[in-house]
Amino acid sequence: MNEVSINIKTRRSIRKYQPVQVEQEKLDSILDAAIHAPSGHNQQPWHFLVVRDNGIIEDLDLRIRKSMAESGISRMVKLGEDPKYRVFFHAPTIVIVSGNEINYDPEGHLIPFADCCAAIQNMLLAAHSLGVGSCWIGLVCYLFQHPERMKDIPIPEGFKPYYAVCLGYPDPALITSCPKRKEGVVDYLR
Ligand SMILES: Cc1cc2nc3c(=O)[nH]c(=O)nc-3n(C[C@H](O)[C@H](O)[C@H](O)COP(=O)(O)O)c2cc1C
Fold this sequence. Notes:
- This protein is an alpha+beta fold.
- The chain has helices at 3-10, 24-35, 54-69, 74-81, 112-129, 141-144; strands at residues 46-51, 93-100, 133-137, 159-168.
- The protein has one domain (11-171): NADH Oxidase (3-Layer(aba) Sandwich), CATH 3.40.109.
- Helices cover 35% and strands 15% of the residues.
- Bound molecules: flavin mononucleotide.
- Flavin mononucleotide binds at residues 12-13, 15, 135-139, 179.
């Protein structure tokens, strides 16, 4: 296996982090990988809001858990009310990824959501190659669904926040093995 394949296959979602900040140089490199993702018509319709302040991350986490607790979805209510649960797993850095939806045109292949997902995957792999752990966070949607809880979060005009990414040094005790991959998902038309 070459280095890229090894990097892809050994990356794991990290859900416990050491209380050590990711160096700015490594963060720059991870964000540089993000902006080198492919995008429809090369629109590069992405924006990355980096949060490295522990107090702000905790506050955002609390807002998300509050919305989860209010959601009425029993699994989410349970997680949202769990005092030990953290949506961002105490990661020292989070990145909120948003897409510019002004030019959204699925027939013209201008689908910022798809472009942003490609950028996120680049971030996860770049982070892993630098020894930095990451986790793609979808539960942050519980914050995005509540505009009143988003007022102090500077997402540029016309952009829609989709996901967040946690970044930080993994707690080695909690690196899980690879979840089993489904087989039989490849067919050939010959
Ligand atoms: C769109 C998307 C949303 C996700 N949201 C979360 C999340 O909110 N919390 C979490 O712990 N993991 C989240 N994950 C991570 C997945 O649970 C994880 O990728 C999957 O279990 C496979 O594990 P692996 O990443 O270690 O291969 C998300 C992944 C994707 C692609």
